[in-house]
Amino acid sequence: ASADVERIFIGCLLCFLLANGPVLLLVCLGLMVREVGPLPTASAFGLVLVIFPVNVVIAKRIGVAKRKMLELTDARVRFMTDVLRGIRIVKVHAWEDSVEKYVQSLRIRETAQGARTLQ
Question: How far apart are CA 19 and CA 39, in angstroms?
Fold first, then answer.
């Protein structure tokens, strides 16, 4: 639930930027032309246009990796919720060690996915 609220919040921020983006772009370009001239401004704007597709590709890859990591986090949290609901059964059957090993393996996979994201 909190992840959904966070996505809605980020969406609201991005919608604000989407609406004001063209105005900000024109104002910034106008100020740059005034300060450094039209040729450096056109060069800088061209560089931004060239780099933009690279940024999009990187963002998509990070998004895919983040989704994979969130799937692992959800699996761990779901398992821990189930364990906490049935903690008496775990204690009665002395399953603490196996539960701990399983949670540790989920954490290792989750951490490894996070490390792959950063590479």
Answer: 28
Distance CA 10, CA 2 (A): 12
Tell me the helices (H) and strands (E) count for the chain, helix number first. Answer: 4, 0
Phi/psi of residue 8, each to 5°? Answer: -65, -45
pLDDT of 106 over the 90 cut:
no
2 vs 79: CA distance, rounded Å: 19
**99 and 54 Cβ atoms separated by less than 8 Å:** no
Count of Cβ atoms closer than 10 Å to residue 110 Cβ: 19
Whole-model pTM: value is 0.57
Please report which confidence band the pLDDT of residue 1 belongs to, taking 50, 70 and 90 as the band edges. Answer: low
- 54 SS3 class: helix
